[in-house]
Amino acid sequence: MPRQTSRDLRNESRFEVLHALFTLGPSTRQEIAKHTGLSPATVATLVTQFLSEGVLRIATIEQNTVGRPYERLTIDPGRGRILGIDVAETYVDATVYDVLLQPLGQSQVMLDEHQNGQTYVVDGIVRAIDAAIADGGTTRAQITGVGVSMPGQVRPDAGVSVFAPNWDWHDVTIEALLAERLGLPVYVDNPLKAIALSELWFGVGRTTKSMAVVNLGTGVGAGIVIDRALLRGETNNAGEWGHTLLQLDGRLCRCGRRGCVEAYLGVCGLQTTLAEIDPDHPALREAQQPGFVAAVADGLTRGDSALAELARRTSHYLAAALGDLVNLLNISHITLTGWTTAALSEWLIPAVRSELPDHVLPGSLPDLTVEASKVPGNPVALGMAAFSLEQFLGTLGLASKASLPATGRRLRSPV
Amino acid sequence: MPRQTSRDLRNESRFEVLHALFTLGPSTRQEIAKHTGLSPATVATLVTQFLSEGVLRIATIEQNTVGRPYERLTIDPGRGRILGIDVAETYVDATVYDVLLQPLGQSQVMLDEHQNGQTYVVDGIVRAIDAAIADGGTTRAQITGVGVSMPGQVRPDAGVSVFAPNWDWHDVTIEALLAERLGLPVYVDNPLKAIALSELWFGVGRTTKSMAVVNLGTGVGAGIVIDRALLRGETNNAGEWGHTLLQLDGRLCRCGRRGCVEAYLGVCGLQTTLAEIDPDHPALREAQQPGFVAAVADGLTRGDSALAELARRTSHYLAAALGDLVNLLNISHITLTGWTTAALSEWLIPAVRSELPDHVLPGSLPDLTVEASKVPGNPVALGMAAFSLEQFLGTLGLASKASLPATGRRLRSPV
């Protein structure tokens, strides 16, 4: 029977060479061969092809006192621009990258979390993209692909937002809507897949075999990496840790089930917990979630006792729910990301590290690490740009179908 | 960097040919080529080698009216015997198999669940093995390997029972103890890995890409298969679904944490639930767990109302906890096994199927199936025999180190 793989980075020689250059930066043929495990002869042949195709260029030539001069190769950054878009319930972040995934420009458009119309959301995405293109000194003609992360359940193979609970969206053909509005190739996926890919390319995933990249924001979830490969699941929905149980028959979650982790660790969950502690707390008067989280961080800095209790309970919930991930998957790394993490990690992470051993089976504990993500910038936008780039590389002189990433399809062209 | 794999069945041609014969039964070279995806020429070469080595023999020769006669090949069942041992808290099941994993003889020795000494448990294992060998009309000299499943956390690479909560065992070198007592090569692993392998070889795993094989007994847990490969985790502890949360700060679990799934769905959990419903129920007077489960099944058949409420609550707990597995892993199949399943599946499975959609995100629900395992006999013993056989095949004319299964080691020889 045919073997199938979940790898988004395929073990294909041409792709491996290009990916090595992302990981290593400008490199010699010898360094590429060592990194990829390909033979020096294979690397030399492929590099010659890439140079003739204009995909690679020579970055530097160095001369030692003895021996031949050696060349450092790099992907030609002039080959195009990539957009990575993080669409959340409360904002759209857009970043323009070159093909080395260096950011050139960015923008943010706030969304009203109480609006849910398709036109409202698409308009916000388009405005963010236009502003990012202007900020990056780029033109739309230079953009080779747009990777768009949509909240909730997404089928990248169909370009569909299957279910976005906060907006009550069902089966919205978002990729076609965006491709039409933008006149650009669009690839949609889910933020959990994007954050996992950003950690695989630029974070602890470069050296880690298994990890969960845990997002804490309006929604919560985990990008799961097993044996260096992104876990997608049968319908791209793996990682919905936010919809595993913390408390059977507990708080009503926006997914409709009771007791989900998200009902305690999503921003609405934090608001509910604070209301249980002090229903008149001033932070609860913030109309939008980012304002609430900022007020919590401010209050914790000032030593507000109700917020200290909120941090204590939230850390307890988080340690317990992360313990479940470790016990089920026996992963070695947990990386926390998302805007709640960015605001509150100094209160949450030490407490979680302290409590986690109480929740994890002893044999799964050795070498377990929990830390905030060190991926620079917005990891969702970066991961989406990396997905889009994987597909773009598939068209960059990589004629063989086998070299396309495992998503098994090309970018949807504008209609 | 070197790539690592979690596959216990390696994509290695010689192993693939042998494994195809397990899956297909006696087969022609053409059928093997079709099943493995190897070229007919490669299969012909490997079969010739195996025949000359005595690993394979010709099972039948058939003659059509036209064309050449064709041979059906089989692994020579005379090449040895394999023991598969399921050690649980309450019993030891031992089965003798031929190298086609057909059972030849078996035995069961009951263990007192209140005893935990190493000598007591090892004695029980040895008695079960001796009785199975006698029942199978086999001699100890014919046994080529013994696969032993131990409850709790096991490191097969070290042959150690890391933690067995019911016995309070820590870092017991069980493999060496058994190899010394038996004078036979021993391989130890965990029942969750064994049930997953038995489903991969003989159950729904033959046609399923991803599944959880859920064991319900004294302990509960899941053998997880992702992309047709067994998920082991960093320290072989993946699948400890029994120690994920059902109820934060809920019932005390024997692992020391509060609120674990096992505290509700393990047999002790069922006893606790029944005691909450009717503390004087006669089923609670059974001294040993198998007697309790049998009494529950009997009572349900008779329409006992307290036991009907026990089944209702247990199904609710099970549906919720299985929902977590689906939401996190987005698997397509759940197979239930274990002796609680064997006794109570007719009450639990229909109720779980009915409630599960309430716990699963809509995008993860299509094509989800929940059913009792159809693997014949004891799946833990069968899976352990399959592990042992994988290692035995590694010595059966398979000289190349690359053909060994991914556990990366040979059987521990007797000391």
What would CATH call the homologous superfamily of the largest domain in chain A?
ATPase, nucleotide binding domain
Largest interface: A-B, 62 and 62 residues
Percent of residues in helices of chain A: 25-40%
Assembly context of the chains: homodimer
Family (chains A, B): Belongs to the ROK (NagC/XylR) family.
Pfam family, one (chains A, B): ROK
GO molecular function (chains A, B): kinase activity
Protein name (chains A, B): Putative NBD/HSP70 family sugar kinase
Explain how this protein is built:
Chains A, B: GO terms for molecular function: kinase activity. Chains A, B: It comes from Kribbella jejuensis. Two copies of one chain form a homodimer. Chain A has twelve helices and 15 strands. Residues 1-11 and 397-415 of chain A have low confidence and may be disordered. The first copy, chain A, folds into three domains: 13-75, Arc Repressor Mutant, subunit A (Orthogonal Bundle), CATH 1.10.10; 79-191 and 378-400, ATPase, nucleotide binding domain (Nucleotidyltransferase, domain 5, 2-Layer Sandwich), CATH 3.30.420; 204-372, 2-Layer Sandwich (Nucleotidyltransferase, domain 5), CATH 3.30.420. Chain A is of the alpha/beta class. Chain A is globular, with a radius of gyration of 22 Å. Chains A and B meet through strand 12 and helix 10 of A and strand 12 and helix 10 of B.
